[in-house]
Write a structure and sequence with these properties.
The complex is a heterodimer of chains A (462) and B (426). Chain A is α+β, with helices and mostly antiparallel strands and 462 residues long. Chain A has helices at residues 7-10, 67-88, 116-133, 197-200, 205-222, 238-250, 255-259, 322-328, 361-366, 416-419, and strands at 16-32, 35-53, 56-62, 102-106, 137-155, 160-177, 183-194, 230-236, 279-282, 285-286, 289-290, 307-311, 314-315, 336-337, 346-347, 351-354, 370-376, 380-382, 387-392, 394-399, 402-406, 410-415, 425-426, 431-433, 437-440, 442-445, 447-450, 453-459. Chain A starts with 6 loop residues before the first helix and ends with a strand. The radius of gyration of chain B is 24 Å and the shape is globular. The longest helix of chain B is centred in the first third of the chain and has 17 residues, at 70-86. Classes of the chains: A alpha+beta (462), B alpha+beta (426). Strand 3 (56-62) of chain A pairs parallel with strand 2 of chain B.
Chain lengths: 462, 426
């Protein structure tokens, strides 16, 4: 992206104004049983401006990334604010928050870029490994997904930021046939995370390790049993603990959803979880290490900070943009982001997880007489009542403190704030993923993860 | 646009492409956003884009860009060919074939109606007055699109289209009691006199208020479930994904891969693709560059067509689909929804969606029934929450016991309420 100097367009404006030059690049290569079914690269970029006048917003965006293009969108955004204000002006209801950040981060690879042929050759090698090492499959998929976003932002209250943030993952999907002729499937993610293809996949050892484990688990799953339905002791491994933190808790504390009636709205400063549970939305750095989805300055120009959502079981903070922070008398901490250049910033999580505790996974398993350990999830949803449902694509029985048979696909459900009160053990280590997109009107890159947690949960089954 | 397309095709040929196809698009959006009941944002966006596909030595590459800058177009053309060269030969790759028929299509308005802003403002006030327990976000957008698909086979299809898009999420709250979110989304050719009536928004809000005080359904039982059109659409998407589309058929995992021309659902099920139906916002060109046509998917329970792209059809030696989801309809039945409910001994009416219910490859799913109501002895008795249903999407459409006379049209699909039996509710 050819960067434009945006500062002069924002200076001296009487209305609060954001100007964002923003480009997303998506790369996708998919192999289905060895055939390349997708081989594409897409670039979408442009400039947008959002202007606030009389309590309403005007936004305009265009693909023209020239100085003229910037002038046009700033002018059109102001026109839109005027037009909307003519029927819906509400005025300013408080002091408009301002915590302008100035920052620049460029995470593009430092390695020599591979040619398209070199990338595809590596993926073919990966596919060949799956074919050779996983002989009992009826179908296999190897999918590379790369996504880069590049943003250049200024605001009229003095923020200036630039970021180039890439992420890369390979998905491996294995499908085998059970004895009854029904297909059984399992997928896993070779978690590249923050970086480009060259940063992670020049060496396929991690891909091979993940594939070996996935195939071994799929073979066990083919002989798996349906779990017993009911409320049981279980261990949620980081895959599920992460989606729990994001879907079942994180969304309920987004202040725009609190305004829409989320269950969290009536629980601020109340006990919503076991005191073993602390949940943080990390801005960019955790324990001195850069997160997968670092946000240093958000798309409202706010200098980003961590948000401690739950502190030792007490609900402490919501996630805000400037408008909800003003309305609720809270502090902005950098949670407003827009996905594409024409999108307005919405309240979004960044890197959300339960903080690790002190337990060892072996001790957690040994403490369960009759229950399950749930390892992988393929999907999950929750709503603002806190009711959640996650698909479990891989798990095992735990009997007498030891791992038992694999289980077939099942689901776990519950009410987040009820379930979190049943947490009795939290492991000392954690794992993260950043492969998915969170969908909330717009898509968004997010990181999620956490430790293993022991709790009681409702299991679907026979 | 014609000039851009010609330059892109020529650049791909110059770079060595045997076949080349481009889609050139110009899009304009005018959008109004309601945030928690207040009209808060007006947006206009303008975007130009181009998607270039090159095939060389039976290898394929695609490059897309958000610009019509000629140098950028030429660079994307070289990139598409380079990506093709890096790929793997597959004789199933192709571009759209030249066929007889119209080449220009136009539908909808050229620009948003002047009433867009006052109607939206009026709807805001109406919801505040009539539904004080409802919290909601909402947007209505007018999308103007001009698109040209052209290729080295001589295909040149242009589409000019203007349509409204509406989407809302909402819940009801009374004290500390809150309902699950429900959703409305769809398309309109023109605006109605009262926006709250568009896409049955008012009916959805009324239903949301009725959901207050939901409790678990109670004991596990096997019963009948009535799927509201919005939920039925999700099930049809899942059915297609598991059994009728490229990945499932090329991968060989579809349970219906050998069932063409055979009975796959109850006999009362008639589902067809309706891209050219005048009652919806029409789709004239497929994603792979062919003219669309209406076609039967399932007729009286018999599988008449898969939903394959050109590549999928070539790969599996089956027919290419001329229409696809989301433009589908299911034929109405012979009973009213009230009659269907009155004939239900014990079951559920699922008014929203099945949360987390994405099925595995064989169609088995389980998920939480959202925005749902318990039916006992022919009457809706109460709203339910924390209630899971499990089954298989193949079985759902094989056990259809009733289809409503009433149907909902969301501008893309026209679907009835459907009752199916043998579903586990727990």
């Amino acid at each position: 992206m050819q960067l434009i100097s945006l500062k002069s367009f924002a200076e001296g404006r009487s209305d609060y104004t954001e100007i964002r030059q923003h480009e997303n690049t998506t790369s996708r290569i998919a192999l289905l049983n060895g055939d390349i079914t997708v081989n594409s690269r897409a670039v979408e970029g442009g400039v947008s401006s959002r202007v606030r006048r009389n309590g309403v917003w005007g936004l305009a965006a265009g693909h023209d990334m020239s100085k003229d293009g910037v002038e046009r969108v700033v002018s059109a955004a102001l026109d839109n604010a005027e037009k909307l204000g003519s029927v819906a002006a509400v005025g300013q209801k408080g002091t408009w928050p301002s915590k302008p950040g100035v920052d620049s981060h460029d995470f593009r690879t430092k390695k020599d870029k591979l040619s398209p042929k070199e990338v595809i050759d590596i993926l073919k090698e990966a596919d060949a490994y799956v074919k050779e090492k996983c002989p009992k499959l009826i179908s296999r998929r190897v999918i590379y997904a790369g996504f880069n976003h590049e943003k250049n932002l200024v605001t009229s209250d003095g923020a200036e930021s630039y970021i180039f943030l890439p992420r890369s993952h390979i998905y491996v999907v294995l499908i085998a046939e059970r004895e009854d002729g029904q297909p059984a499937d399992l997928f896993d993610i070779v978690n590249g995370g923050r970086g480009e293809f060259e940063d992670f996949f020049m060496d396929l050892s991690e891909f091979k390790r993940v594939t070996d484990i996935t195939y071994e688990n799929l073979m066990k799953k083919c002989e798996g049993v349906l779990p017993e339905a009911g409320t049981v002791d279980c261990i949620l491994m980081p895959d599920l603990a992460g989606i729990l933190a994001h879907e079942a808790i994180g969304h309920t504390v987004e202040a725009d959803l609190v305004k829409l009636g989320s269950v969290a709205g009536d629980n601020l400063n109340k006990t919503v979880a076991s005191e073993l549970v602390t949940l943080i939305d990390y801005a960019h750095t955790k324990d001195g290490v850069t997160c997968d989805v670092p946000v240093y300055v958000d798309d409202e120009g706010v200098k980003a900070e961590d948000v401690t959502v739950i502190d030792k079981g007490i609900l402490k903070e919501f996630l805000h943009n400037k408008e909800t922070a003003m309305e609720m008398g809270a502090e902005v901490k950098g949670n407003a982001r827009g996905f594409a250049y024409g999108d307005e910033p919405l309240i979004r999580m960044r890197n959300t997880a339960i903080v690790p505790g002190n337990s060892k996974l072996d001790d957690m398993i040994a403490s369960i007489d009759n229950g399950y350990i749930f390892q992988n999830t393929g999907n999950g949803q929750a709503d603002t009542t806190g009711e959640f449902m996650f698909g479990v694509s891989m798990g095992f029985e735990v009997k007498g403190g030891k791992l038992g048979r694999a289980i077939l696909d099942t689901t776990v459900t519950g009410i987040a704030f009820d379930m979190l009160k049943t947490v009795t053990m939290v492991s000392g280590d954690d794992a993260w993923t950043s492969s998915g997109f969170c969908g909330k009107k717009q898509m968004m890159s997010v990181g999620m993860g956490g430790p293993a947690i022991k709790c009681k949960i409702n299991v679907g089954g026979q | 646009m014609r000039n851009i397309a010609d330059i892109a095709i020529l650049a791909m040929k110059d770079a060595g492409a045997d076949k080349a196809q481009v889609t050139i698009t110009r899009a304009e959006k005018t959008e109004l956003n309601i945030d928690t009941g207040d009209l808060k944002l007006m947006r206009t966006t303008f975007s130009n884009s181009a998607a270039l596909t090159a095939i060389k030595d039976n290898k394929k590459g695609t490059s897309q860009l958000g610009s019509w800058d000629l140098e950028a177009i030429k660079a994307a053309a070289r990139e598409a060919v380079e990506m093709a060269e890096a790929g793997q030969a597959d004789e199933a790759y192709d571009i759209a074939l030249l066929e007889d028929g119209a080449n220009e299509f136009k539908a909808g308005l050229d620009k948003p109606e002047d009433c867009l802003l006052p109607l939206t403002a009026a709807m805001c006030e109406r919801v505040k007055k009539d539904f004080p327990k409802i919290s909601y976000s909402y947007f209505v957008a007018f999308n103007k699109t001009e698109k040209l698909v052209a290729n080295t086979n001589g295909v040149s299809l242009s589409v000019t289209d203007g349509r409204y898009e509406i989407s809302s999420e909402f819940s009801a709250k009374d004290g500390e009691v809150v309902t699950s979110f429900n959703y409305v989304s769809g398309e309109l050719s023109t605006l109605p006199d009262d926006l709250i009536e568009a896409l049955d928004f008012r009916a959805h809000l009324e239903q949301s208020v009725k959901e207050l005080g939901a409790k678990p359904a109670g004991e596990k039982f096997t019963g009948e479930v009535i799927f509201q059109p919005e939920c039925l659409f999700e099930l049809l998407e899942q059915y297609a994904g598991c059994f009728l589309t490229d990945a499932a058929l090329i991968g060989g995992t579809s349970m219906l891969k050998d069932k063409f021309g055979e009975k796959v659902t109850s006999e009362n099920v008639i589902i067809r693709a309706i891209p050219l139906n005048n009652d919806i916002c029409r789709t004239f060109v497929t994603n792979d560059g062919f003219r669309t046509e209406n076609m039967d998917i399932i007729k009286n329970g018999i599988l008449e067509n898969f939903l394959l792209t050109q590549y999928g059809a070539n790969k599996t030696s089956k027919k290419r689909a001329k229409g696809n989801i989301p433009n589908i309809e299911m034929d109405a039945g012979d009973k009213t929804l009230d009659e269907i409910i009155s004939e239900t001994k014990r079951g559920l009416l699922i008014g929203g969606h099945i949360s987390g219910g994405s099925p595995s490859e064989n169609g088995t799913f389980s998920g939480v029934a959202k925005n749902s109501f318990l039916i006992e002895d022919g009457k809706i008795t109460r709203p339910v929450q924390e209630t899971m249903i499990s089954g298989n999407v193949l079985d759902i459409f094989s056990n259809v016991t009733a289809i409503s006379k009433e149907r909902r049209n969301n501008g893309a699909a026209i679907l009835p309420w459907v009752k199916s039996g043998g579903i586990t509710v727990s």
